[in-house]
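Quick start: read one record
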Amino acid sequence: MAEPDAVRITTARSSAADDMRSRKRRYAWSMSIRLVCFLAAVVVGSGIVMWLLIAGAVFLPLFAVVIANAVDQRDDGFMLPGGPAAPELTGRDLDG
C-alpha cells in the first residue's frame, strides 16, 4: 500500500478567524494613526506641518484598507514535485 505524501504545515495559512482578527488589528492601528494625525494638526496650528498631517489623515484610509486586506502569503521556497519548476519530459527527451 502506497504511503501518502507528507503534508508541510509550515506554509499552511492561518485560520479564517485568526486572519480576520489580524486584519481588524491592522486596520485599527491605521485608524488610530489617522486620529493622531488629525489631533496633531489641530494642536500644531497653521503651517506646512499642519497640511502634511491633514494630508496623511486624508490618504491614510486608502492605505489602511490595502494593508488590512493583504493576503497571508507564507512561502518557505519548497516546491512540490511536478510543480511549475519541474520540466516536462517529451518524446524527444526519451529517445536520447
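The two ends are 34 Å apart (CA to CA).
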